């Protein structure tokens, strides 16, 4: 009996010992795995922090660099706009001084030197000029050119209506100033570019000759000799939907033809402005 009890006791102790040993090993494994996991987690956290810090520093650097670029661009843009406005003012002042006849009417073409100076400035500063600015300045350039005498092909020069050209140039000057000032946040004036676009759009529909689509335009948008710049804009504004429809028709026609790139660009610019300010 004692032998049996000894065997049972020995077996029970062995089982307990095995159970304890198994639990100990399991706990040790758990602790080892947990320790290893904790170490890897800390390393991973440290790597994430390093990467995050690097990204934050990179973003900060890019932000500061972009801010510097924007600031430099803004400064150059402001200088460009100021130079353009001065050139326009100088041209109009010179034209006003030299172009009047004894009765006080403008009888001379725009001064060539100032005209070429303005054209050169537009070319040099075009990096800072968006479509709104280019549409306005190109229109002014065309109006100035319309004051110059033209050759009839036989070597004879013929004068043009300098008074009408001067009137349009005077009309454009303060509106171009408003557009340029608006680009640098000095003022907010959507009316100026709308009026310039209407003036340019009505002129283009009267100056191009494409009989297939009824140009020069007739009806409400047809210009009369006595129409000044204000009258032209009033006509376009009063018949705005008709103006838009005719411009779109002209644009489609030019695209289908696949030529007349200069005219297509003008029409596209005017349409874009007028659609945005409708």
Any descriptors?
278 residues, mainly alpha, two-stranded antiparallel ribbon, 8 helices, 1% strand, elongated
Describe it.
The protein is mainly alpha-helical and 278 residues long. The chain folds into two domains: 34-149 and 157-188, no CATH class; 190-278, no CATH class. Helices cover 75% and strands 1% of the residues. It has eight helices and two strands; from the N terminus they run αααββααααα. The protein has helices at 2-98, 112-124, 131-145, 162-183, 190-207, 229-238, 240-257, 261-276; strands at 150-151, 157-158. Strands 1-2 form a two-stranded antiparallel ribbon. α2 runs antiparallel to α3 (131-145) and α5 (190-207) crosses α6. It is elongated.
Our count of domains comes out at 2
Shape: elongated
Gap between N and C termini, in Å? 112 Å
Main sheet makeup: 2 strands, antiparallel
* Share of helical residues: over 70%
Taking all Cα atoms into account, the compactness measure Rg is: 39 Å
Q: Please, what is the oligomeric state? A: single chain
String of helices and strands = HHHEEHHHHH
Unreliable runs = 63-69
Strand order of the largest sheet: 1-2
The count of β-strands is 2
Counting helices, strands and paired strands, the structural category is: mainly alpha
Average residue-wise pLDDT: 85
Number of helices: 8
Strand content: under 5%
């Amino acid at each position: 009996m004692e032998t049996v009890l000894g065997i049972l006791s020995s077996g029970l102790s062995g089982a307990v010992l095995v159970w304890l040993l198994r639990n100990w090993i399991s706990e040790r494994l758990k602790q080892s795995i947990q320790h290893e996991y904790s170490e890897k987690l800390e390393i991973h956290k440290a790597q994430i922090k390093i990467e995050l810090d690097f990204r934050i520093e990179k973003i900060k650097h890019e932000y500061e660099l972009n801010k510097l670029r924007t600031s430099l661009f803004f400064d150059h843009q402001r200088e460009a706009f100021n130079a353009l406005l001065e050139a326009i003012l100088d041209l109009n002042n010179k034209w006003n001084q030299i172009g009047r006849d004894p009765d006080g009417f403008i009888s001379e073409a725009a001064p060539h030197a100032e005209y070429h100076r303005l054209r050169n400035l537009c070319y040099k500063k075009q990096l800072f000029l968006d479509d709104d600015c280019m549409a306005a300045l190109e229109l002014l350039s065309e109006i100035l050119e319309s004051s110059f005498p033209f050759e009839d092909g036989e070597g004879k020069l013929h004068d043009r209506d300098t008074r009408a050209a001067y009137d349009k140039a005077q009309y454009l000057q303060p509106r171009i100033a408003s557009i340029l000032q608006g680009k640098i946040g000095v003022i907010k004036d959507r009316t100026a570019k709308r009026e310039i676009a209407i003036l340019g759009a009505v002129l283009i529909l009267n100056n191009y000759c494409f009989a297939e689509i009824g140009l020069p335009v007739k009806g409400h948008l047809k210009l009369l000799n006595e129409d000044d710049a204000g009258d032209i804009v009033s006509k376009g504004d009063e018949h705005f939907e008709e103006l838009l429809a005719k411009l779109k028709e002209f644009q489609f026609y030019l695209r289908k033809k696949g030529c007349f790139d200069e005219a297509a660009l003008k029409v596209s610019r005017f349409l874009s402005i007028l659609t945005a300010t409708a």
